[in-house]
Amino acid sequence: MTPSVPLPPPAIRRVITGHTPAGKATVVEDKVTTMQKFGDKPDAALFTTLYRSDDLKPSNDGEYVESTKQDLIGEEGSTFRAWDMAPHSISPFHRTISLDYAIVVKGSIVCELDDGKRVSLSAGDVLVQRGTIHAWHNETDEWTRVFFTMIASKPVEIDGKKLPTEFKESSK
């Protein structure tokens, strides 16, 4: 008998509210999202942008316009993202110019920093990522799901040098 491969978490249903022309609250979208691969590896993490605003103070006026660009983060505004990692997978090391709030909702995951520090997070744990370069490791036999709110920030500056958005392969 071949071992069973765990299935990824179920698709995420996204409900977005807005207003009618008369100013009444209404549901403007109710649909299941589609996940995309983060990288080229067969076991690459899956992600979807659940909502994005390119303004620091977004407007809730007017008609809803799809705002789920899949690039990581704009120079302004915020992004709300879901991240699913397959069992025994590793993301590239990366840094975004953002302040990220992460909430682990399923499974467990290890955040590795480029100084070698590793922090294990389980369902219910949160992490505040402040523009540091990091990689994610799912070292378990189950899928992991993490939700992120990413807010555009000023780049980290060390000795007069601004640290850029960066991607590089993990050392493991």
Task: List the topology elements.
Layout: E1 13-19, E2 25-32, E3 36-38, E4 45-53, E5 78-85, E6 89-90, E7 93-95, E8 98-106, E9 108-113, E10 118-122, E11 126-130, E12 134-138, E13 144-152, E14 157-158, E15 161-162, E16 166-168
Antiparallel strand pairs: 1-2, 3-4, 4-5, 5-13, 6-12, 7-16, 8-11, 8-13, 9-10, 9-12, 14-15
Please describe the biggest sheet, giving its number of strands, its sense, and whether it closes into a barrel. 6 strands, antiparallel
Structural class: mainly beta
Mean pLDDT: 85
Name of the CATH first level: Mainly Beta
* CATH homologous superfamily (4th level) name: Jelly Rolls
Q: What's the architecture, going by CATH?
A: Sandwich
Unreliable sequence segments: none
User: Which outline best applies?
Assistant: globular
How much of the polypeptide forms β-strand, as a percent range?
over 45%
Number of strands: 16
Distance, first to last CA: 30 Å
Number of helices: 0
Quote the CATH topology.
Answer: Jelly Rolls
Radius of gyration: 18 Å
The helix fraction, in percent, is under 10%
The figure for the number of domains is 1
In spatial order, strands of the major sheet run 3-4-5-13-8-11
Helix and strand pattern: EEEEEEEEEEEEEEEE
